[in-house]
Amino acid sequence: SNPLLNTRIYLVEFDDGHVAEYSANVIAEAIYNQVDDDGLMHSLFTDIIGHRKIEDEAMSDEDFTALETGQNPLHARTTKGWDICIQWCDGSSSWHPLSEIKNSFPVQLAEYAKHNDLQDEPAFRWWLKHTLRRKKYLLKAVKSRYSKRTHKFGIQVPQTVEEALEIDRATNTTFWFDAIQKEMKNVRVAFKFLDTGERVPIGYKWIKCHLIFDVKMDFTRKARYVAGGHMTDPPATLTYSSVVSRDSVRIAFMLA
Q: For 39-97, how does the pLDDT look when each residue is reduced to its tens digit (9 = 90+)?
């Protein structure tokens, strides 16, 4: 169980097709040297070179107008259904969700959208003009380094269960499947499955749930089943209890 005592040898294939033998510790050290303390890799931004719209997921103009003029206009603020292609300093390029690029490079994305006549699209309309007005202030705060959230410790991190199982099939492994099975086994005791026609008990409410995925420092895959707590009101009995440090207690007793 101690990774320092791992003496296994692996065959490593490089991009040029060259294959060499390396020990597990050498591979792990090489991976750790390429990531930050959170296990994320950083890339230097060069330019935005493309975009694509997923028609089935992107919000339509009619839906956007209805939500924007409705009781809760914040629901119209979505970036779903759009991907942005980024070119990096090493010459490579990759596709990323619009939300990630908007948070990392808002000014560059706003200028790209305006140049490509995307300012009237619902995914851009609600934030683009405001970003361009505050351009000079945002440029000072935004860095050119981008944390790749799609990989951790060099391992691809899925966003959905379907993607996790697809990674397992592509790599001929069961790492993500095993993580999902382990998590669902642990949380199953907290659920009661209703029979057909059985009503939901009083005091309970339907909310969305989903799985989030992560990679531990020992490269173990981890899955966590989480609920959308924003869809229900907090219980009346919910209280917050802060933690008092030992030094604070001693000072209080001394003053008393």
A: 666 667 788 999 999 999 899 988 888 888 887 788 788 899 999 999 988 788 889 89
CA 196 to the chain's CA centroid: 35
d(CA 256, CA 250): 10
| pTM of the model as a whole | 0.51
Residues whose CB falls within 8 Å of the CB of residue 48, separated by 6 or more in sequence, listed in order? 84, 85, 86, 87, 101, 105, 108, 109, 112
**Residue in the structure block whose two tokens are 């005091």:** 203
Q: How far apart are CA 118 and CA 188, in angstroms?
A: 45
What six digits make up the tokens of 168?
Answer: 């397992």
Q: Which residue is listed with tokens 């040029």? A: 16
Distance CA 49, CA 83 (A): 11
Considering only CA atoms, which of 42, 2, 34 is closest in space to residue 218? 2
Q: Say how far apart CA 31 and CA 220 lie, in whole Å.
A: 14
Q: Name the E strands within the chain.
A: 9-13, 19-23, 41-53, 82-88, 93-97, 145-148, 151-152, 155-156, 209-215, 221-227
CA distance 165 to 162: 5
Residue 115, pLDDT score: 92
What does the alpha-carbon distance between residue 240 and residue 61 come to, in Å, rounded to a whole number?
43
Inter-helix orientation angle 175-187/161-171, to 10°: 140
For residue 213, give the nearest of 182, 185, 249, 191 by alpha carbon: 182
Instruction: Give the separation between CA 108 and CA 48, rounded to whole angstroms.
Output: 8
Per-residue burial over 54-64, b = 16 or more CB atoms within 10 Å of its CB, e = otherwise: eeeebbeeeeb
Nearest to 3 by CA among 22, 28, 20: 28
